[in-house]
Amino acid sequence: MIARATVCCILVLLAFPALGQETWTLEHCLQITKAHSLTLKKADADVASSRGSCTSSWSGILPHISAYTDATRYSSEQMSFVQDSVRTSKNRYSAGLRLNQTFFNGGSSWAQLSSAKASLRAAEQSCQATKAQLALNVAETFYSVLRAEALADVAREAELLARRQLERAEERHRMGAASRQEVLKAKVELHRDMLAKMRQENELATAKSSLLLLLGKEPGTEYILVPPAEQGIDVPPLEECMAKGQQHPSILAYVEQLTSTHKSVTMAAAGRYPSLTGSASYGWSDVEIPDDVDRFKDADSWSVGLTLSMYLFDGLETKGAVQRAKASARDAELTLREMQLSQRHTVEDSHRRLLEAKAQSETADAALALANEEYRLAEERYGMGSLSFLELSDSKLALQRAKVDQVEAKNSVNVARSTLDEATGELGDLW
Asked: Which CATH superfamily includes the segment(s) 2-10+24-71+89-430?
């Protein structure tokens, strides 16, 4: 009766969470991380910086227009031997507009703009890759808390079973059907289960603290996690996962970075070609500020010009720059191939682990059903006196082990699925 009442109390507490506790789903945890993560803020800042560089790259293509104005006072003194020196002063005022335009510089300006755009796309893809990796970290920590909670529940159930076994052993001892040794064994087993429960609850507290740290929450914040809805373990074909893996944000980011590197070769080779620039100006300069349009026109001026320049010899600077740019591009191509190969291995390994986790889950479910049935029969036989306490304890231990295996199997499925989703670039979609 006592054990049954205890179970009822625990169920009531689980059904009605304590006031002041927050309820979090995996999606909620991801939103909290998005709002507080310094890593994400840094990635967003990198994107903003790349966008600014892309805007600045237009300066080599668009004209530059400037305005100027000036006011100067001149003073001079004339010396004479026959009369006193004469000092004269006058003012000069000027204002105008200037325009400068680059018409051709070997394609350097356009290459710089293309490179900046590719760098912006690379930064955006890198930001997506950062989000996917952070989402994986949150998911793994989230599932580790659920795992610790489930294992703590298993430990609590084991303690309740141990209490019930102790009660039955004491009752049998009073009836003369069990020895004192059997009662002592039941007490020892109960204390072991109590110690196991304490250890598991400590592990749960550590796991919950790790999640709080990852989410940027204050220590001691009370919360309850809502497990994701149960769903079948569908493993997509390996070929489909491989194709998605090659579209991972980290791969796409480096593809864009490679494009930017190739544009650097064009910018370096621009020194081999002539540069053509144009300029135009319109201004006014006079000793007095004009009071009518005619006076202004008498002192205005304008000019238009073209400048063609080309290095005849630059001390091998261009040649060296082209060699460095080509070597960097080649290095980037090899790095991309290495990343693509590594990603294929990662996807294959993640796919294999999900298949293994699926088989482990199916095996654990069958083993738990068997252990439940065996323990039910063991309790009946123990009540009839046809089974020893040691055999009943072995059956209880097998049931507890089967429950733990099922918890571990579910956690393996969740983690393996999240890992495969991250490898195929789908985990970032949760944001």
From this structure: Outer membrane efflux proteins (OEP) (1.20.1600.10)
